Amino acid sequence: MSDTSFEIAFRGNTHRVSLPLDAPVSSLYARLEELTQVPPSAQKLLFRGKKIGASQEGVTLAEAGLRDGIKIQMLGSTTHELEALHETESEHHTKERILRERALKPRVKLRSTGSSSTSATQYRFHKLEPLGHLPDPPAALARLSKLASDPAIHHIMQKHRFSVGLLTELAPHESPGLLGLNVGAGQAIKLRIRTDEYDGFRPYLEVRRVLCHELAHNVWGEHDNNFKELNSKLNREVAEFEAAQAHGTHYLVDVRGTYEPSSNEEGEALVHVLGGSSTPLTDSIEDRRRRALDAATSRLKKQEEELEQSCGTTKPPSTTQL
Questions:
Q1: From which residue to which does the signal peptide run (predicted)?
Q2: Label partner for 75 (CA 20 to 30 A): which of 1, 193, 197, 264?
Q3: pLDDT, tens only, 100-140
């Protein structure tokens, strides 16, 4: 049988591959490994919305529905990226082991105004996991780590005793229209952290707002008034926590420099708070702080109404499924 030609799109590049139609599908995966350094096990080939499987024993390209001139979308991580991910995961597991060992050691009770070490290790994200078949898993893991260690997120998780088994990501092509999903009332939270074109990541503060929304689903499954009340409270507490840092209030965590105004409206309000020329001299610090929080709360309320339309968690916590 004569050779036929395919076009494979991968990370902005197009690779042309010529193979006989009676060749096994595995030969296409092997050829793509030579061109992209992505091993077959990490390759994901999409054609007409379907995945072309490399493990189907004896299936030919023709039997898989491929023909001359078709275009195939490829996703996957290179060998180098996978090695880097495994190294990062190894470091993460080592850190987890050390923390567990420390938690088991007997401690001398000390009087403290902060959260206990048990609380710090219990109310958190217990595992972070990017999707290995998407581009640059180490960068995705770094994004998830930033969310998990965000001082404001840590603050509300300790305050409300939120524990999440797994924090991972949603692939845009696999979950179109969804920005977040809470599975099993905190067994796992999935966030859409990437752009539609897989060429980068969505704005950090937007993803963090989705995370607050999904954390509220740890308690309430439906978007009812109970959920909305808790979700508004979480957003308000995040805004208050960060505003307090901007005003110099001291918490037991050093978060100086982490506050980022997320809109022109909020940024303008903070100019007043930080002593701009348009601030009346008679205004108290509390008045300035309240003005900034009012601006942030108004904006967050509008954004939350939009988030409800792109949240996949709609069932009660006991029956929430993917």
A1: none
A2: 1
A3: 777 776 654 444 444 455 666 788 999 999 999 999 999 99
